[in-house]
Design a protein that fits this description.
Blueprint lengths: L1 H8 L23 E10 L32 H20 L14 E5 L3 H14 L7 E2 L22 H12 L2 H7 L1 H11 L14 E4 L6 E4 L1 H17 L14 H18 L3 H20 L6 E6 L1 H11 L18 E8 L6 E9 L2 H6 L5 E5 L8 E2 H11 L4
Helix pairs in contact: 2-3, 6-8, 7-8, 9-10, 9-12
Amino acid sequence: MFLLLLAALSQAAPSRPTTTVPAAPQTTPHRLLLERVVMVMRHGVRAPIDGEVPADTHTGAPWPRWPVAAEQMTPHGLAALELRGADDRAWLDRSGLFTPGRCPAPTTVRIHSNVSQRTIDSANAFARGFAPGCGLTVDHQAAGTVDPLFEPLRDRNARFDAAAAMASIDLHTGGLDALTRRHRAELDALDRVLDCPQRVACTPRDAASVRASADGRSIVLTGPIRRASGIAQVLLLQYVQGMPAAQVGWGRVDAAALKRLGALHAALFDVFTRAPYMVAKQAGPLARAMLAALEAHGDRRLDLFVGHDTNVTALAAALHVDLSSRDYATGDVPPDGALVLTLLRDPATGARFVRTSYRVQPIMALRYLQSGIDDVVLRVPGCSATCPLDRFATLLMMRTAAG
């Protein structure tokens, strides 16, 4: 596995790392039946996190107020997640996994969230929409603990080599200053939205750097992308929260502008979840849990893991797929966005296959609390559109081998 990691690190920056695997067999299965769904979803619309807009950010007017405390789910966000749950239930009812209008048997659905309140609240809202009045429960660890599925870098039992992480990030990005230069147009566009009175950039344009955290168990990014990513995210959150147009970026952004600015938030994951070493560390525990759910015996039909954008982007990086949809920047996971693994069975042979997709609520559906899902099928390199289960498992485990 170590040799595979070295091979990935040797790729010319900033191209996607590759893993050498045998060629995918060219088979055409019979009509496939949906057997099980496993997905990892980002929490819903929340208030900004303290410091998400850096304190040294200059603006021409104050930021709008939010109806809830920092980083907590909003009532609007919970309502959007109930709609998301109802839409996913309708999809799975049409697929024959569940019976319309009936509560699913308790053993057929498992919902597991991270320990943060926004993920727990998101999971409960999804459950209410998915099975109204059925009392579906949400599993999670106790408050104050670390769930390594969602926050593996905080797991004290896991090894982390900060030097290896930084070397991997440097190779993957081509250098942090190069990453900043690639997003100069978006940084300039963000300054126009902020409209600060100074005749300088509204956010400092100093040199970027990455260093080991104080405890050596993670990394710390500084520089323009670190600052701008959070600001871009807050602007998106204003829009999908349904704030009046005059309050969203002070009336200077619309959905199209938010998609462009979203590239700044997506760039954050080039550092934290897409570099090969970070893929192994960030995606490994959740990838193993999702594979176990796919391969499990019993009558489970839906496994849902509710976490964060880092979880979705890390798993996508492990699968070498781009998270691309019509309304959001490539690689930027919106609230309620989910990577979905669908287990399919060939009734003639019993062979099982995995289909990977990206399911997001359109930006207008989030903003105006409307039903609707964009479902984008993703082709995993080394596989056809439907990947034999054993091959899919091999690819995913190779790409999340610990460094």
